[in-house]
Amino acid sequence: MSWNDDVIEQFRSSKGTENYWGPKLVVLHSIGAKTGKTHLNPVVGFRRGEGWQVVASKGGAPENPAWYHNLLANPEIDIEALVDGDVATVPVTATVVPADEWTAAYDAIVSEESQFGEYLTKTDRRIPVIRLTPRAG
User: Fold this and answer.
1) What does the alpha-carbon distance between residue 91 and residue 127 come to, in Å, rounded to a whole number?
2) What is the pLDDT of residues 69-111, one digit of tens each?
3) What is one Pfam family matched by this protein (predicted)?
4) Which of 15, 75, 96, 97 has its CA 20 to 30 A from that of 67?
């Protein structure tokens, strides 16, 4: 079992309470830009109103994670997230936070999880923030 598989299994079996990121975990069901296959990607999710924001940080690597490119190609996906005390599947639309909103969005994320600030020091790229907006299922 891979690390991602283990994180996802712990998240599901504990109803979102026991995993690396606790209740902030979001499992993206991204759809491969080239393959069309569904990939499960556990990421830190930040609640924003009715939706979430996630960060394509890849730990500050010089390139964006594959799931980011998949979301650009196929923005209508499902996520698994903690909703009302249980793990729920939520249909969402993924959009990149625009440049004029990026600083405020990223600063708010760093205020919750400081390691995201450290990721900026490791790369020259603007690390994308993606908004996950619920849509009718």
Assistant:
1) 24
2) 999 999 999 999 988 888 899 999 999 999 999 999 999 999 9
3) F420H2_quin_red
4) 15
